[in-house]
What does this fold into?
Amino acid sequence: MQRLHQVSKGLKTMTFPWKLNRDGAKMLLPDLPRILTEPFASQQEALKLVIYPDTPTTNHAFLQLGFQAIPEAEQLLYLEVTDGLVTPVFLQISQVIPEISLLSSRFSLTRSPLTPQTLLLEFLKAQPLSQVTQPAKFSWFVQLLTQQQLFFVYQPIFHLATGEIFGHECLARAFDDQGHHCNGQQLINAALSTNLAYEFDSLARTTCLESIAHLQTSQVFFINILPNAILCHPQSLANNYQQVLDLGLQPSQIVFELTEVEILTRSPELLCLIHQIQERGFQIAVDDLCASVTVDHYFMDFLPNIIKLDRRLVQGCYHHPVKQVLIKSLLNSAHELSVRVVAEGLEMVEDIQFCQDLGVDYGQGFGLAVPQLTPQVIPSPAPALVGSGSAWN
It folds into this structure.
């Protein structure tokens, strides 16, 4: 976590004249012009945010935000801001302007008069807007990691043949600085955008194992991991193995679910790491099969214990012939290799019935049970559908 501590230290020691939120956490804004941190002879001049939009559409969006054209340089827009409102302005920009335009548009903060000569000098050192909007947009996430504010909800995974619970998937959750609820995908997006995927992945695994230990149960739990994160820091999984033993858990209770949200190249190091995980008694599941993960991506080099069929393949399968053929083919191939199959995204009774009749091993989805703050326990076969019907009636 050393790099995260460095980021956190930067947050605490910044001297910019604005704050991130009501708790007083400082904003991380890299490479801002010295205009905000040093005294200038032109201090009486108003502070102006000058933008060079990348397209006419972006130009129009900035005009809607209150920016004005500069008469001497009509391709540029400006907005007068007070020092205390710089951060809210950048936050608003990050929420309105598409990311691709933030990468292409450039900005400068200046107190100089908006003449062609000074603007030319200013824009020689102008930076992409994304350099400042990304940290502004996701600074809540850095604070979340440094304060270790993740928590988990648990969604049951059922034996489709019996209705009994096989295990639970642990789903990371958090609240941002405005108190808004953040789901797992939003947290992963923030981690990738801030280049803190490893820090997020490591904290999530450690926190999740501690939460499982507090439950004092022998049930099986699926924990998501980012392959590229563990590939860059393989020691973290060895630490988790020791953590499992120290907490009194069994490795066989833990299914590490490979979640492929980044471009992942096949590498001998990753395959070796996955084999080590399995040799220590953990199970491996592959998430989103037939979506972001192709069938041969992992199967050509190692066999997972479990595969999870992507919801886009599963939903509506009861009346979709092509989906039915694909599911049957994957199921038969998996069973020939002694690999178990989970159907994700089960919401309709008809889809549940089709997967059950086909022989899919496990099912997961809102049609069976929604995520809860505490794991669900059903000691005997029982209906698991939420609603009026049940696939086990």
Summary: The chain has 15 helices and 14 strands. The first strand starts at residue 47 and ends at 52. Residues 4-43, 384-390 have pLDDT under 50 and may be disordered. Residues 230 and 237 are 7 Å apart (CA to CA).
